[in-house]
Write a structure and sequence with these properties.
five-stranded antiparallel sheet; six-stranded antiparallel sheet; elongated; 24% helix; alpha+beta
Length: 173
């Protein structure tokens, strides 16, 4: 059903874009047509997030990062235990964008956290932020009270900083 709705929205956008611009789809390049379809899919992802009340962490440079609510805590193996916080990145900007984690704090403990992989221009990516919580003594998701993050966006091609984001405070439970 979701795929059908995506195709219907893409077809509607294609028809609307063609009528508005007076263009023929036969005259459009494959890249232009794929761009319209990618934009439609990204809009559907945004609407799904709004319906499920997923929280948008930030929006900058045509890039939006949402929390999905898909959180998990790994069993401790050796000296590692990871808290997974589900995230969805939607990139409607004009360049490939990466998210770097400058600092992370879980329940008052400074911890290592991996950032998100690069999200290509016009695409979306669902991925987990991974927090190494082995030193915090957390045994279950219910014990996670507060997460503080400092993030940066960077241009994936040049690795140049796009912007530092305001520090975020997340309530998981």
């Amino acid at each position: 059903m979701r795929r059908f709705l995506a195709l219907m929205l893409a077809a509607t956008l294609l028809c609307g874009a063609g009528v508005a611009e007076g263009a023929s789809y036969a005259d459009m390049s494959d890249e232009e047509l794929h761009g319209i379809i990618d934009a439609a899919r990204n809009e559907l992802a945004r609407r799904e997030r709004a319906l499920t009340k997923d929280m948008a962490l930030f929006e900058a440079e045509g890039f939006t990062l949402y929390l999905t609510g898909k959180n998990a805590l790994d069993d401790q193996v050796l000296d590692s235990q990871y808290l997974h916080i589900g995230a969805l990145a939607v990139n409607d900007g004009e360049k490939d964008i990466g998210v770097a984690v400058n600092s992370a704090v879980v329940n008052g403990w400074e911890v290592y956290c991996s950032g998100l992989s690069v999200t290509s221009e016009g695409k979306k990516r669902e991925e987990d932020l991974l927090f190494d919580v082995a030193s915090t003594g957390i045994q279950s998701l219910d014990e996670v009270e507060d997460i503080q993050l400092s993030l940066s966006l960077y241009d994936a091609e040049s690795y140049m900083l796009i912007c530092d984001l305001e520090p975020l405070s997340l309530q998981v439970n």
